[in-house]
Amino acid sequence: MRIAIIQFPGSNCERETILAVKRAGMEPISFLWNEPHEQLNEMDGFIIVGGFSYEDRSRAGIIAALDPIMQAIKIQSERGKPILGICNGAQILVETGLVPGLENNKLAMALTENKRMVNGKVLGTGYYNAWIHMRLSHDYQRNAFTRHLNPKSILHVPVAHAEGRFVISEALWQEIEVQGQSVFQYCDAEGNIIDHFPVNPNGSLHNIAAISNKAGNVIAIMPHPERTLNGDPIFQSMRDYIAENRIEKTIPLYYYPRQTNITAYRKLSDVYECVVQLIITDNHALTVQHTLQQLGIPVTVKRQIHWEISCDAQDQLAKIKNSGVLYNNRKEVEINPSTLKSTSSFLVRAKEDWVGQQKLQSLQNHFQANELRSISHGMLWHFSCKDANITDVIRDILNTHIIANPYAHDCYQYN
């Protein structure tokens, strides 16, 4: 049994994954994103490894999801071959739409910034690593990765991610639950589902740790079963699924996502805009630009960080900006929003702005910014092109979801 270990620039869990595949009695084949895709036909299964593909530029998983190899992986999934996405691999599968598997693999959910809160205080929003417990969900379906597990199995495995919080609409969640696609949930050592940190390490909806497609041959799992012998049953199950030689027909879910509308940004009169630009090269913007150009979209991309500050005293603004909490003046500089020039601009904000809340909390607690009422964090994206219709270009850009996942972000036209 030959298992392709799919790796992108920035992947870093290939060794642990290779060892886990060997322990399960299968043959791991390292497969880089730029190798001939025809060779995938010779593989019996696929694992998209963890790490930070393309340094999580724009957001975790999106650049790799738009890579041509993922179209080839989609074809393999339709043949019933097992596909396991671990951590960053899970993020890639979600961004491609292979999980949860709507018609035409439409984007249906998000894996977004961690939310760690205790008693109303934000403990953190970024990268977090720890050992956690997870178990099969109450209504899980038996699939390609659960054959060696039972409802009493509790797996003690590590998590290590910054964007691992599953966000799903309630309507889609109901269908996922009915179909048994919620495979693993975070729990305590006794198997109790407790929806708060640290049992739920990232604030994931319903303590979700892993979701599959309807056929059960594709799974996105945020914890790292490959890093411990405790996770071996998942790989052994994958082996037995391949041995059965059953082709599970991939049937899409019934859920159909609603069209999201982009409205114009309106700054309130009592808030101050702080737009921050890198002095050094912005690799995020360059990677997005290169990816769009590879997709045939002729565009130039610029990016800035956008803060909205609301406070009672103007003298607090200088104190806030000089604190170093919002930006590092050694590599970033504040610019005047009125000087921004582009053909089309968009402001992207997280629906749940935990970054803004954490900055607010830090400024109030450590810098005595008591007149500070609120802080909102976002990202400004600017697009321009010379030889194409900008309306068509912007439509194509937004359809890639490269700057925003509509289940995790709000997007505004910015003028």
Task: Write up this protein.
The chain is an alpha+beta fold and 415 residues long. The protein has two domains: 243 residues, Class I glutamine amidotransferase (GATase) domain (Rossmann fold, 3-Layer(aba) Sandwich); 151 residues, no CATH class. It has ten helices and 20 strands. The strands form four sheets. The protein has a nine-stranded mixed beta sheet, sandwiched between helices. The longest helix has 13 residues. It is globular, with a radius of gyration of 22 Å. The mean pLDDT is 95.
Question: Tags for this entry?
Answer:
globular, Rossmann fold, 415 residues, alpha+beta, 2 domains
Question: What is this structure's SSE topology?
Answer:
Blueprint: E1 2-7, H1 14-23, E2 27-32, E3 45-48, H2 62-65, H3 68-78, E4 83-86, H4 88-96, E5 110-112, E6 116-118, E7 121-124, E8 128-136, E9 154-161, E10 165-167, H5 170-179, E11 182-187, E12 208-212, E13 218-221, H6 232-244, E14 263-264, E15 272-278, H7 283-294, E16 300-311, H8 315-322, E17 332-335, E18 344-350, H9 354-366, E19 372-384, H10 390-400, E20 409-413
Parallel strand pairs: 1-2, 1-3, 3-4, 4-13, 14-20
Antiparallel strand pairs: 5-10, 6-7, 8-9, 8-11, 11-12, 12-13, 15-16, 15-17, 16-19, 18-19, 18-20
User: Main sheet, how many strands, which sense, barrel?
Assistant: 9 strands, mixed
Q: How would you describe the shape?
A: globular
Q: How many alpha or pi helices?
A: 10
Percent in strands: 25-35%
Average pLDDT, all residues: 95
Short overview:
This protein is α+β, with helices and mostly antiparallel strands and 415 residues long. The protein folds into two domains: 2-244, Class I glutamine amidotransferase (GATase) domain (Rossmann fold, 3-Layer(aba) Sandwich), CATH 3.40.50.880; 263-413, no CATH class. The chain contains ten helices and 20 strands.
